[in-house]
Amino acid sequence: MTISPPRPVGPGAGVVGAEPSSAPGLVAQVAAVGRRSVTRTLRQRGLLIFPLVFPLILFAINGSSLSAATKIPGFPTSNYRDFALALVFIQGSLFVSISAGTDLARDIETGFFNRLALTPLRGEALLIGQLGGAFVLACIEAVVYLLVGIATGVVIASGVAGVVVLMALSILIAFGFASLGALLALRFGTGEAVQAIFPLLFVSLFLSSSSLPRNLIKVNWFREVATYNPMSYLIEGVRSLIITGWDARALALGFGFAALLVLITLALANAAMKSRLVRT
Amino acid sequence: MRGFVFVARGVAWRSIHNTLVSPAILLPSIIFPLFFLVAFAGGLSRLADVPNFHYGPGYTAFVFVFVFLQSAAFGGVFTGFAVARDFESGFARRLMLSAPRRSGIIAGYAIGALARWSITGTVVTVAGLIAGMNIDGSGTDLLGLVGLGIIFNFVAAMWGCGVAMFLRTEQAGALIQMPVFVLLFLAPVYVPLTLLTGWIHDVARLNPASVVLEAGRGLLAASPVDVGLAFGLLAACAVLLALFARRGLASAERAG
Hints:
Largest sheet of chain B: none
Structural class of chain B: mainly alpha
Shape of chain B: elongated
Helix content of chain A: over 70%
Largest sheet of chain A: none
Radius of gyration of chain A: 21 Å
Oligomer: heterodimer
Strand content of chain A: under 5%
Distance between the termini of chain B: 24 Å
Number of helices of chain A: 12
Strand content of chain B: under 5%
């Protein structure tokens, strides 16, 4: 006996339910999956608030509590909030990874992925499309953090053009962490596995130059760890635009590590996606 | 009274047993304070070079007192999570049906919180000593610091129990944790109160956690500051929050 699947109706039906011969192109597939991902992200307003607000709470507290650090000889700015704002962008990116991974894991846990495996949808389209919601969340976060920073007196040393580059870098970093979340979801298939990575990411964030410049870290082993920790270079790339202006080395390292994160995690996630979508 | 002791002992035994046999429960309460100790003492020790930063035992000891008291508070907070979990799983309802004196349930959870913190506090102290922390205070001073931690742990446990018993869902976790987290971080965490400026100074000056923190640091440095006030504030909070937890229990009893 053969069972014909019902023809899907509604938005995106032409993509996931179409016959292989009439399957739309990659861009159309990405757009359809991405639209679903963005809609889902924007509908979960409760889940949007915490990733937005928590880094800002820490920014408000640490920006003031650590202002005495600006009196350390050699500290690069006279306002600690200028220094601390970069950390807010990275913390927000870590939350994006959880959001992206958890959404994907939920699709796996509810069986949505298994149903998609029956369609001609390409794995690459599914992966990139699924990250659409994370991309939108990253954009919203970047705008909000920037506006809050400026409202609290932070001056962007690199000017208007620097703001554009800062947004691009922070969104690229967030996309990299979102891909990491997606990779974990695809590999392990559960939201718990995605959530479990968060403390590790948070620890690696604090074992970096997040609170003081590396050259001012007094404890040797901590300075070594911060130097080998790629998180330091992501933070320093963003921070350079805020407090230094145009620092080619910091920007190259920041964009370089962010691009590397995106490439590695996307490649691994794509491989995991292929095994997840194996048609049985 | 016998009924109270019987219930308290039973709940405490279960709470301690669950903590000891389940790494998922014990490890976070150990790892987080250790992480804060490493991150702050390692990454921020240059703050001790800020003009007018005077703390005899050094920056590691300065941070240690915060982490020690934070671990005490979070020992109580995590117990609040356990209470919420017991309500959601239905265990708490069965417990209330069988308990001859229900106030013993709160006491049992409080003992469980203290036992949990005794492990965490010991680990944090050993880690601080390994990291080269200096202790200038006498044995009596250190007992005073431990005493502050014990009452702080009780206060946080009562807060956690109260919220968990009022809401009876694991979703109460954020409401249990966030106020304690914010209260602690609105105290002089990284530098003494005198070096804080702006709004954080005004808030920290009014924050009861600041008094407890500064008293603890004074005890470790053998130069006690406002110790009586710190114990008095904590005792007042303990009484108020014990009443709050009791009302939470009454709310849970009414809900059935």
